[in-house]
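Per reviewer request, we include the raw input and output of the structure prediction for the construct analysed in the revised manuscript.
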Amino acid sequence: MSIAKQAFGRFHLHQIAQGFPETAETLLLDTYLTDEAAASSRVFRVYRPTPPHYHANSDEHLYVLSGRGTFWMESSANSEEFAPGDFLFFKRNTIHAMPDLLEGPVVFLAIDTPRRDPKDIIFVDPKDGTPDTFIRNRQP
């Protein structure tokens, strides 16, 4: 399956999610479904708790396909558990984190508006990582 560059596409999200390996060197692995300037869509798997960070150039919409964990936006005081079927949204520059993975695999459908450059990740504490340690694109 290649990135959709035509006027339509059809994707089997759970089949894509099942194709992710059990372990990864980065915090996340993703597969782009669409990759246009106005928006991109991805399926990604989370392998480890994700420290506080933000994206400077895009809003993020996350739909939980599988797994359970905790997620907070703006402040750790807003931490709540997420589960399949939940939808999370936050605007660019909103600090967010996923401190706990309770049940895996944790997989999301992400829609970023406009398209999020994979290098657009700013950790609150720079010691927590770099774009290269955060996410790696996985070819389907």
